[in-house]
Amino acid sequence: MSDQAMAPGRVFLVGAGPGDPGLLTQRALELMHHCDVICYDLLVSDAILAQIPQGKTLIPVGYRGYCGTSIEYGMHPDVVAQALAGHEVLRLKAGDPFIFGRGTEECLCLQYHGIDYQVIPGISASLGAAAYTGFPLTSNGMASDVTFASGHKASTTISNWAALGQGSGTLVLYMGAKKIALHAQELISQGKPADTPLAVIAAATSTRHRVMHSTLAKAGQEIAEFDNGDPMLVVIGDVVTLADKLDWRSKLPLSGVQILACTEHRQLIEPLKLAGAIVIEPVTRHVTLDIEDGLWQQLMSQFALHLMDRTSAEALLAACRHRRLDLRDLPWALTAEGDGVTLLAEQGVFVESAAQEGAMVIQQHTKGVAINYDYDPVNSAIKPASRVLVDDCHSLIFLISNQLLATKAVVMSQCTEVLELAQELGFVAESMANHDECAEKGLQSVA
Ligand SMILES: C[S@@+](CC[C@H](N)C(=O)[O-])C[C@H]1O[C@@H](n2cnc3c(N)ncnc32)[C@H](O)[C@@H]1O
Question: Which family does it belong to (predicted)?
Answer without folding.
Answer: Belongs to the precorrin methyltransferase family.
